[in-house]
Amino acid sequence: MTQSILTTKGLTREFRGFVAVNGVDLDVAEGSIHALIGPNGAGKTTCFNLLTKFLTPTRGTIEYKGRDITSMKPADVARRGLVRSFQISAVFPHLTAMENVRVALQRARGDNFDFWRPESALYDFHDRAEGLLEDVGLSEYSDTPAGLLSYGRKRALEIATTLALEPQMMLLDEPTAGMTHEDVERTVALIRRIRKGRTILMVEHNLSVVEGLCDKITVLTRGRVLAEGDYATVSAHPEVIAAYLGTEHG
Length: 250
Hints:
The structure is a single chain. This protein is an alpha/beta fold. The protein has helices at about 45-50, 75-80, 95-105, 125-135, 150-165, 180-195, 205-215, 230-235, 240-250; strands at about 5-15, 20-30, 35, 60-65, 65-70, 80-85, 170-175, 200-205, 215-220, 225-230. The protein is globular, with a radius of gyration of 19 Å.
């Protein structure tokens, strides 16, 4: 039986009487690609913010690798290998792709960010940065300022900087949102490549991406879990069709 890497029990978040996440029990298997889907306002991003500690639960617990992280700070959770990307690409636009990845790799120095040392201090990270850029298909854009990259390639760069933190589990918030068909295909291929030795939990609206990529899907609506299982299971669920799939397909 596959071991769980992340579980929640009764996870709840209220905002002045509005319940955004309501009693969510989540069980993410180690090494899997697990999707959170649902209509707008279903609580998916709030759930992500709770898991990565950008929000504190009103009630419920979160366990990661068998340890209760409910009260931990975001940085402590990230240091334990649970790292997220954001819906809006977060790169330094005036730095090159290589420089963005090297900055992320400075984590290896702990609190020492070498701001007062010559640029050569970062060359220790050059080979590793080159390898990460190759992993995400950006080798030929190594010297390109991030701000000049296409949207899809910016998202790939963000994944490279996330990989620089050596995560055991990655949380990807709508990794294909706003992308062209070509960029979506490239991103799906990238996620398949980087999954080895990692667990991925993703919020995703593109159902063809979810169908072809994810091992397990949790459907949220109005903050609650509506259905769970593989794509065939959840796509045949009458309430899912009414609450989510039906809205996607008219």
